[in-house]
Design a protein that fits this description.
- This protein is α+β, with helices and mostly antiparallel strands and 173 residues long.
- It has two domains: 103 residues, Alpha-Beta Plaits (2-Layer Sandwich); 48 residues, Roll (SH3 type barrels), CATH 2.30.30.30.
- Helix content is 17%, strand content 40%.
- It is built from three helices and eleven strands; from the N terminus they run E-H-E-E-E-E-H-E-H-E-E-E-E-E.
- Strands 10-9-8-7-11 form a five-stranded antiparallel β-sheet, with no helix packed on it. Strands 2-5-1-6 form a four-stranded antiparallel β-sheet, covered by helices on one side. Strands 3-4 form a two-stranded antiparallel ribbon.
- Strand 7 and strand 8 form a beta hairpin.
- The longest helix has 15 residues.
- The mean pLDDT is 87.
Length: 173
């Protein structure tokens, strides 16, 4: 199939997101559709709740009532998702599925593109955008897990510690 898989949002009954996910996974397995419906997610976030003056971390659904599905849109994949118990329809005009944009995918955190940094500690760089755009700095540490660098940037005649994302910096030529 030449068509590329895209992320779609299915609306569910609130509180049934995990059950819907399990039902879709079962349908995929039964119909052998692993090459068409690739991934199903119920986005979660960790939040701190305070109960009886005791803070505790809990996982909460980011989008209650929604399941996000990565699939190649065909009449069969549409039918399987749409007719899964607990699904009320796709998000889009007249329940016609509309894929998420690249910006929406990035904001939700469904797919993260790893950026390879060709810098080392001690290298000099220029900031491409942000409040410090155009400033020059020196890298003091690199955190490849978070894709961020710590650096010293000259501001008002003093070196100031800053933390920047990989895509905010460029090499000085």
């Amino acid at each position: 199939m030449a068509e590329k898989a895209k992320w779609y949002v299915a609306h569910t009954y609130s509180g049934y997101e995990n059950k819907v996910k399990a039902n879709i996974e079962k349908a995929i397995e039964n119909r052998n559709m692993q090459d068409i419906i690739l991934d199903i997610r119920v986005p979660m976030e960790e939040v701190t709740e305070i109960k009886d003056d005791v803070p505790r971390k809990v996982m909460r659904k980011t989008f209650p009532g929604y399941v996000i599905v990565k699939m190649i849109m065909t009449s069969e994949s549409w039918y399987v998702i749409r007719n899964t118990r607990g699904v009320t329809g796709f998000v889009g005009p007249e329940s016609k599925p509309v894929p998420l944009t690249e910006e929406e995918i990035a904001k939700i955190g469904l797919e993260s593109k790893k950026v390879v940094l060709n810098f080392n500690v001690g290298d000099t760089f220029r900031i491409k955008y942000g409040a410090l755009e155009g400033s020059v700095g020196v890298i003091t540490s690199i955190d490849s897990e978070k894709q961020r660098v710590k650096a010293k940037v000259a501001m008002f005649g003093r070196d100031t510690d800053v933390e920047l994302e990989y895509n905010q910096i460029e090499a000085l030529s």
